[in-house]
Amino acid sequence: MRQGAARALSLDKTLYHGGLSFGIIRHSRQVKTSFVQAVDALIVQTASNQEFGQICRGIRNQPNAEDYLKPVFMVANSALNPTWKKEVDGIADLDNLYSASETARLIHEKITRAALVQNPPQTYEVDILLKILQFLFTRETQLSPFPNRYSKIHYQFPFASYFFDENEGHKILEIIGLGERNGWVTGKTLDKIHGCASCGSAHQNLRPTCPKCSSVDLKEEDLVHHFPCAHIAPVSDFERDGADGLHCPKCDKSLRHIGNDYDKPSSIYTCNNCHHSFQQSAYKSLCIDCGEDVDLQKLEEKDIRQVQLTNKGKSVVLNGTGFGKVSLSENKPAASTGIFDFDIFKILLKQELAQRKSNPRPGVLGQVKIEGILADHMPVKTREELTVEVCQVIRSYLKEPDVVSARGPGSYYFMMTENGLAEAQYLHELLTFNLKQLVGSNFSRFEINVKVKLESMLK
Predict the structure, then answer these.
(1) What are phi and psi of 164, to 5 degrees?
(2) Can you name the residues that pair with 9 across neighbouring β-strands?
(3) Cβ-contact 136, 70 below 8 angstroms
(4) What does the domain layout of the chain look like in residue ranges?
(5) Does 334 have pLDDT greater than 50?
(6) pLDDT at 332 over 70
(7) Would you state the pLDDT for residue 126?
């Protein structure tokens, strides 16, 4: 690689300085794995905010650690949103890349150490958490969210947000929570949001509603208290057509001076839909993303956290230690309840089938599919609660030795070890009806369909 001053080669697609190569990216079409791998660092040069975001997303979603952790710089441009500076490792001066090359060199030293560690395959969310840990290690910085009005949670997290769509911001909060629960990151709360329990969105419209019919078409007016006759009524009752000022409908006197003749102690609402009058409105929140309309107390408060890597997290990055099989789930149903993890369920099923080869006896394998649930749009907590509730309903129809398991909120399996197929047929109608009622009552916006399949374990 060439040393010295920066020089433009191949139509300014690559610059060289201090033994490092810098790839210039002006359009998201240029973000190809072959190009990213061919250079030591990348410089984004565009005046389009949309292009800038797509370029960063393309870089951070590269398959290899050496590439998705690659140093990224930007060329300053007044047309760009100032917050883009939080997504890059610095501002690059194309005529003097000394500062950028020094920063890139330090990052590369840490990338080399982090990329050598091979961690066991995890779920997609946990793999993203590992990438976040690697990023914090290679940058020696904090993960500091910044406001973004396009984000479902009103905030964007540098590096981390590019692994999800804009409507999946709530998943980032869950991943950061997982990192804190395991002691890999620690931090502080910068802000709080109130999200929809169904889809996690913080895009909420709060408004007063009628406590009788829930209409938002309300008229608010002052209550007037006339001192001489003690009459209290809405201000509209004191107004007369063609007359100035206020006149008491009870004693017919004019109200001239507030504080002397009358006061306005409070206000009153009148619903234009059902004509109900009331003083205390019922505030409700309408989710702009999914349309769920709920009382304010049903919104889920979430912390917007700024986090940094702990020593334990650094050990995960450098050694792979402490990064066993982990899950986003905080609470798992106990095996004593007859509800098992799916991996354990498969082992139990295999044992039961093996026993029946030498000693045939009745047994039923059941499968329940709940179609119409948009699980990807649910917060993790909601998915887990639904999964446990459905398992408990299925378990309530089984005997003590029987077991049940789940592969997410839409797919369930159970094993009946003492009943034959004919004896288990009653479960078709029971489970179909009750599970449809359970899920439908909690997620009225979904069109739910429940399918139950029973199969003899003697086959």
Answers:
(1) -135, 160
(2) 14
(3) no
(4) 1-116, 211-280, 335-456
(5) no
(6) no
(7) 83
